[in-house]
Amino acid sequence: MEYVICSDLNDLHITEEGSSRGRMGQRRYNNEDPSEFKSKNLFAERKRRQKLSERLLALRALVPFITNMNKATIIDDAISYIQDLQRNVKVLQEQLSEIEASSEEETKPRSEETEAADEMKKSGIQAEVEATKIVENKLWVKIVFEKKRGGFNRLMEAMNAIGFELVDTTVTTSKGAMLVSSCVKGIYGESLQVQQTQELLLDIINGI
Q1: Measured in whole angstroms, how far is the alpha carbon of residue 71 from the centre of its chain?
Q2: Residue 191, phi-psi category: left (phi > 0), alpha (psi -120 to 50), beta (remainder)
Q3: pLDDT tens for residues 24-39?
Q4: N or C: which end of the chain has fewer CB within 10 A?
Q5: Rounded Cα–Cα distance for residues 86 and 102 (Å)
Q6: Is 79 left (phi over 0), alpha (psi -120 to 50) or beta?
Q7: How far is Cα 94 from Cα 89, in angstroms, rounded to an integer?
């Protein structure tokens, strides 16, 4: 408070400047509307919820089966779907590993067969069949063909299928080739012709 003293007692005035200023300052502070801060917070919250709703809609669109449309169920169904996908990925990876392993096993014999064929070619060895009649129903044969895995077994199966029986058979391999020497007779005792037998056996080894 400020006291002003005049020469005349009647002119004595008391002025409360400090308190007046305090009220004015408080009045100016109160001029800032609190609802403005509240509206800003509401806007930010509304925007956050809108983004969350958009993300949930996008998630719902990716999940093929939703049991309920509330937020918690959408998230639970999405988790289950992702877990199923992870299990499927694991199964497919295991199957792919098995396929790759089997491919490597198949590639190795093929490379060996290619080497055998190259070795035969370098050595000047060709697939051929020679046949000589021993008696009416028995021939001696010499068969030369490319060495392949399971080749001899396929030769035996094919000869049995056309009614040939091998007796006293010897098998040797050299320079990528397989040499089979044997006596051949008909299973049913029929007469064997040299030229016809050679042609049949040559067709067999070319198909091995």
Answers
A1: 33
A2: beta
A3: 444 444 555 566 666 7
A4: N
A5: 24
A6: alpha
A7: 9
> Both tokens of residue 187?
């299973």
Q: How many CB atoms lie within 10 A of CB 182?
A: 20
Beta bridge partners of 173: 178
Contact 29, 21 (CB under 8 A): no
Beta-bridge mates of residue 172: 179
In 3D space, the residue among 52, 98, 49, 92 whose CA is nearest the CA of residue 75 turns out to be: 52
Distance CA(208)–CA(199), nearest Å, equals 15
Q: pTM for the complete prediction?
A: 0.43
Of 56, 55, 78, give the one whose Cα is nearest residue 66: 78
Please identify every stretch of the chain with a pLDDT value under 70, giving residue numbers as ranges.
1-38, 103-113
Q: For the chain, where are the alpha helices, taking DSSP H only?
A: 17-30, 34-62, 71-123, 151-161, 194-206
pLDDT of residue 129: 92
Query: Which are the contacts of 15, defined by CB distance < 8 A and separation ≥ 6?
Result: 1, 2, 3, 4
